[in-house]
Specification:
- With 313 residues, the protein is an alpha/beta fold.
- The chain has one domain.
- It contains 14 helices and 5 strands.
- The chain has a 5-stranded mixed beta sheet with strand order 1-3-2-4-5, with helices on both faces.
- Helix 6 runs parallel beside helix 14 and helix 7 packs parallel to helix 10.
- It is globular, with a radius of gyration of 19 Å.
Length: 313
Amino acid sequence: MPHFVEVLDSALISHRLDINSGWIDNVVSPEIRQYLSQRKEYDFVSYGSGDLLVTIGDSWTHGSWIDLDLDPGSTPAQRETFRQQHCFGHRLAQHLDQDWLNLALPATNNQWMAQVYAMLCDMASDVNYDNITVIMVLTEYGRELNCPTWRRQNGLHDVIGVEPLGPTRDTISQLQHCESIQELLRGLSEHVAQTITDHTHPKIQLLLATNYVSQDLYSVELSGYFLPRSWLETLAGGPLSSCHVVGGIAMPWLKAYSQRSGAMLNELLDIMDCSQQRLDLIYSTGLNRPEGYGHPNSAGHRIWADYLKTHIF
């Protein structure tokens, strides 16, 4: 049987158009674009185990900015090593004595994560692992709209002010006619759920969580996969009110989508207010960076890893 990394690299190449095409060019920051173009597509740490732990997510799961816990004079190599070693996935893999694969892309969307999971299901029979545990930490809703290739493939250019192209998937074409932003976000989440539920493998156990938003827009078909608490609820010490969008990645596209009615514009204002309240909470924990998307520090990763230890069997 081929070595795991060979199978993984081959799968990433064959799935590349579905996963990465057109996404990186729409990241606003040149610094982030340069970083993403140079970084490895994944972290892989082998302990010689017959079992594999896979973490899928965005920048929180990737461990972005965790290296700020280090002295400012630390070298890039030291920072990268610190990031990898202090990610919750690495901590959890050490606890479980399992190999670890971290497939996490800063600023990515939930459909990207679902496609990565589908890729793992497709390749699971070709890898020499007895059991594969996948922890997917979903992020805020609506980031798919930030990907021009995804919008073009799914017929949403015409509803957010870009050149019109016909829909290619019936499930997504329905989103052109949503009467509220909530309906749009729910439709996007249903598409993510469909991608996930369409793919299974007997080797794979899937666990779902969210980082700082609510899970309540996902379909009942996914309810059995979700952990009781989100990452932020674990850091904040208890349940949080409903919130679906937090940062600036999805917000401009929701603003463009909402131009069709005054009701949607009022709804957008409520979403923006909720977003600011959630960011204020994130910045106040002492376990998150008080800026940007409030990425967890190394202690925030450790607490999340400790929580996950109690939910993996």
